[in-house]
Design a protein that fits this description.
The protein has 72 residues and is an alpha+beta fold. The protein has one domain. It has 1 helix and 3 strands.
Length: 72
């Protein structure tokens, strides 16, 4: 089962602050996971993005062990 997180930021926040804000929250989330994120096997996807009158919501999905490692 994939792991998910939702990040909500105010609509008034400029995109130049929103991007690093999302990045920081993703980093904190990945660090908090019981099983560490493995860049060679795991994939992080932006599943959905919504906006309403007050904020933006970013929905991320972490799929485990989906990448095939290639050995030369």
């Amino acid at each position: 089962m994939p792991e998910t997180t939702t990040i909500t930021l105010p609509k008034t926040m400029p995109v130049t602050e929103r991007i690093p804000g999302v990045s920081r929250q993703i980093s904190k989330w990945l660090e908090s996971l019981e099983k560490p994120f493995n860049i060679e096997k795991d994939a992080l996807h932006l599943a959905k993005c919504e906006r309403n009158v007050k904020n933006f919501k970013y929905y991320y999905v972490l799929d485990r062990d989906i990448k095939i490692s290639r050995k030369a």
